[in-house]
Sequence to fold (178 residues):
Amino acid sequence: GVPIPPHVFFFRAKEIKIKLGILLQKPDSAVDLVIPYNEKPEKPAKTQKPSLDEALQWRDCLDKVLQNNYGLASFKSFLKSEFSEENLEFWLACEDYKKIKSPAKMAEKAKKIYEEFIQTEAPKEVNIDHFTKDITMKNLVEPSLSSFDVAQKRIYALMEKDSLPRFVRSEFYQELIK
Fold:
């Protein structure tokens, strides 16, 4: 991106808003917009467009999609467009859950995940069979880091088998490999 000259920062707030508004309407330049406050620039999160090689690897590897911020964002937008983002949201909630250290926080988060995704008529109920649901409920009597493992694996398999092939055929993905 083009470095922003220092005098830009002396504009009145209103003018800055207008300038930012104009920049944000052009998504290409928004990516380059790095506000040069820090003396030592921090490494930005990897949200730049993946290389063609990277994007092509996503076709048969859900892991590669989920590990790439841009891939994850594209996949999420695609699932939203299909009204089926609850599977991904559940998978991500489980990933966060496994990072919890405190038993009290774990119990609290487990209850939240259960109420949001697992229980019958949950607001974002995921499609898991009764067997998986029963195991998960038993595991939640004493929440541990592996409480949701079975359900998470089921949902991962479902996304891999069902959502990933549709994502690869979607315009979200086709745009990336042009």
Remarks:
- The chain has a mean pLDDT of 82.
- The CA atoms of residues 131 and 151 lie 10 Å apart.
- The two ends are 23 Å apart (CA to CA).
